[in-house]
């Protein structure tokens, strides 16, 4: 099991940002995710996954548009959304699954 799989199968929720270097809207997610991380601290993990370098996972999870955010907990997808997403919306879904 690699690091990505260890994270998404863990007890803490994990926000995975599927992005691409060439994607303009993806660049807008950086400050949003930074804001989310500041508010949740170590209660959740945020990972960025470049779909061009990790196409296996993009295919596995049916990522067809970037940015796509998927929140995992214990290996299960608990929320997903494509497009630029406000921090408040991400936090609302995370808070429902924080211990």
The helicity comes to 25-40%
CATH fold field value: Glutaredoxin
Task: Give me the CATH architecture, please.
Answer: 3-Layer(aba) Sandwich
The biggest sheet amounts to: 4 strands, mixed
Mean pLDDT comes to 94
Spatial ordering of strands, largest sheet:
2-1-3-4
* Total DSSP helices: 4
Tally of DSSP β-strands: 4
Q: Over all CA atoms, what is the radius of gyration? A: 12 Å
* CATH level-1 class: Alpha Beta
Write down the secondary-structure element order.
Answer: HEHEHEEH
According to CATH, the homologous superfamily is Glutaredoxin
Structure description:
The protein has 99 residues and is of the alpha+beta class. The protein has a single domain, classed as Glutaredoxin (3-Layer(aba) Sandwich), CATH 3.40.30.10. It is 38% helix and 25% strand. It has a four-stranded mixed sheet with strand order 2-1-3-4. Strand 1, helix 2 and strand 2 form a beta-alpha-beta unit. The longest helix has 17 residues. The protein is globular.
């Amino acid at each position: 099991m690699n690091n990505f799989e260890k994270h998404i199968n863990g007890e803490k929720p994990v926000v995975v940002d599927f992005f691409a270097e060439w994607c303009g809207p993806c660049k807008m997610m950086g400050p949003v995710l930074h804001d989310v991380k500041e508010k949740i601290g170590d209660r959740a993990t945020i990972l960025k996954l470049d779909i061009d370098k990790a196409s296996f996972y993009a295919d596995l999870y049916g990522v067809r548009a970037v940015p796509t955010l998927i929140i995992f907990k214990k290996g299960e997808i608990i929320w997903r959304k494509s497009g630029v997403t406000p921090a408040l919306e991400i936090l609302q879904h995370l808070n429902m699954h924080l211990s």
